[in-house]
Please model this.
Amino acid sequence: MLPSIFRENLFDDWFGFPSFPEFRDADRKLYGRHATHEMRTDVHEHDDHYTVDVDLPGFKKDEIRLELEDGTLTVHAAKALNQEKTDQAGKVIRQERYTGAMERSFYVGDALTEEDIGAKFENGVLTLTVPKKDVKKLPEKKVIQIEG
Model:
């Protein structure tokens, strides 16, 4: 019973309930065609900026788009949506490589503009450089001691 909880698919035969074929691929429908393909990301903090490394293996630079709107930086990636690989007879035998679109968003603050953010794509890794903007400091409260 417990091993089914820790398998790759949460919707596996759980607690011996009967299977429902219409829910067999529910996780893929919720999270896209290939739920295991997502933008793995590392964020590093430096003195004056953040570095965000986003893994996008197999993507080309022209398949990636960055947008900044209302302080939210969004990374869009789309790969071969209309391209099908065929064998000699013209049908797909097996397709394991990712085709589709994905996106991920990061809040970077309202004070940043597109010119502030740097982006470099090399060896399947998108590296974003996001500067730290000065945050307005709240006025410091001064406490008056009461004698007596």
